[in-house]
Specification:
about 240 residues; alpha+beta; Alpha-Beta Plaits; 4-stranded antiparallel β-sheet; 8 helices; 10 strands
Amino acid sequence: MAGHSKWANIKHKKAATDAKRGKIWTRLIKEITVAARMGGGDINTNPRLRLAVDKAADANMPKDNVTRAIQRGTGGLDGANYEEVRYEGYGIGGAAIIVDCMTDNRVRTVAEVRHAFSKFGGNMGTEGSVAFMFKHCGQMFFAPGVDEDKLMEAALEAGADDVIADDEGGFEVLCPPNDFAAIKEKVEAAGFKPEVAEIVMRPDNETTVTGDDAVKMQKLLDALENLDDVQEVFTNVTVDL
């Protein structure tokens, strides 16, 4: 995707995250709870939990909230029993969309996701209908102006798979999802702080939508992201408004 679109979308995402801090905290609490339940409550031996706790710190979540979420996950406190579920579908012009949720009520969640798709011009797909177009990986974005050679050396030595330059001078570092936390720490220790760092479903190919299609697509993505049970939404298009 075009560099200006990429960085505009990254800034838009960060601004949207800041504007919805309460909801972000709720999503992070779910993620911390599930990560602790699946891999234990020690961030040193549970990379998924470590990433979630790091995100909570970036979102200025109080440490007490984090501790309680870990305790709920490990059985120390009572709480809802969340499960992970993924839905796939199509947006404007056949764009591929993946919707990752955490829910304590699958019936409610699938109804809400299906309603959002149909109301805003999309369609729910079957399991596996679009996931093959994406790769599960760790992803870090670095702003234009970073020293390419030094970043590449630091990232590859840390275990990254690839460093990709965009047409505006920014860089994208890709790595195996299971090694993401350790690689991110090593890259940051080398002096490189990513603008955004996440484990994602990264599309193999991307296109940019503009005009009315971009407006419609953004409304669909916003509707999905605003659902209480939705954790992440991934798509293979860049919305250029």
